[in-house]
Specification:
Radius of gyration: 20 Å
Number of domains: 1
Strand order of the largest sheet: 1-2
Helix content: over 70%
Number of helices: 14
Distance between the termini: 16 Å
Strand content: under 5%
Order of helices and strands: EHHHHHHHHHHEHHHH
Oligomer: single chain
């Protein structure tokens, strides 16, 4: 019923980049603004963290575009794109639906059992299946996966753009994005797609050079991304309520502790599940 974990292969710099970007996203979501009284120094620190991690999601879009089109044949046909659609259904759609369903269950439990941990941010939207699985989604960090599903759906148009217009087409999308006339995901995904279709040798050599991690890190990073959001919200709220941090050092400590706790808990859960339920664990992270 469930896919077995993918065969372990040597990793490359892309795998290390995935880890760094995923940890960066957790760091961003662990910031504690509006949870406790800040200080000028901590507010500056938070702005620096947000500024540095701002690049994480755009880079993920670019890497996704590159990986989607990296092995594109000279004249991809309907069959080639259909194969990509089937592959991405297992690697994107199924993990996305499962992660949102689990997030909804956790949110429902929190409303019933620990309402003080729920801000009411969703209002009654959490009762709307369309919001839970698409408009929100209820696992809010998965907006990236939702946008990626849309980009995969329009990938033939992206291919035509980068094949016939090349970097000029990407530049045009970048200008539209800079003036807030075009969506960010399309620009960055297309930039990565152009790198994959045009096969820029120096960039590819750097990205695909051997790295310190093996291919198993791909499943771990995906698991962290899929399931960190509600956990990090709960952990940082819990620490703020428990410790009542005051002062820059205390606030930074809560931020760091939230990151360590979330990464530690999810890492332990992932490797425990992979040991006990390897097929199921592989299935919920798209067969990685």
């Amino acid at each position: 019923m469930f896919r077995q974990p993918a065969q372990v292969k040597p990793g490359n710099r892309l795998d290390l980049l995935r880890v760094l970007l995923t940890v960066g996203i957790v760091c961003r979501h662990a910031t504690t603004e509006n949870l406790a009284a800040g200080t000028p120094a901590f507010d500056t620190f938070t702005r620096i963290v947000i500024c540095i991690t701002e690049i994480c999601v755009p880079l993920f879009f670019a890497l996704s575009g590159y990986l989607f089109f990296r092995n594109t044949p000279d004249n991809p046909d309907v069959k080639w794109f259909w194969g990509k659609y089937k592959s991405r259904f297992f690697t994107l759609v199924i993990p996305y639906l499962i992660a949102n369903a689990i997030a909804w269950g956790c949110y429902y439990f929190a409303i019933k059992e620990v309402p003080s941990m729920v801000s009411g941010f969703f209002g009654d939207n959490w009762k709307d299946p369309l919001f839970v699985f698409w408009k929100g989604p209820v696992n809010m960090s998965l907006w990236f996966i939702r946008e990626l599903i849309v980009l995969v759906a329009i990938s033939p148009l992206v291919y035509l753009l980068v094949r016939y217009l090349g970097w000029w087409g990407v530049l045009a999308l970048g200008v539209l994005w800079a003036f807030k006339l075009g969506p960010e995901p399309v620009f960055f995904f297309s930039a990565g797609a152009c790198l994959g279709v045009r096969k820029i040798a120096p960039a590819e050599r750097w990205l695909l050079a051997p790295g310190p991690l093996d291919s198993r890190s791909r499943a771990w990073t995906y698991f962290i991304y899929l399931y960190h959001y509600l956990l990090v919200i709960g952990v940082k709220k819990g620490l703020a309520l428990l410790l009542h941090p005051e002062g820059t050092l205390a606030l930074v400590s809560v931020w760091m502790a939230s990151i360590v706790i979330v990464l530690g808990l999810l890492t332990a859960l992932f490797f425990g599940m992979r040991r006990l339920l390897p097929g199921f664990t592989s299935f919920i992270v798209g067969g990685k």
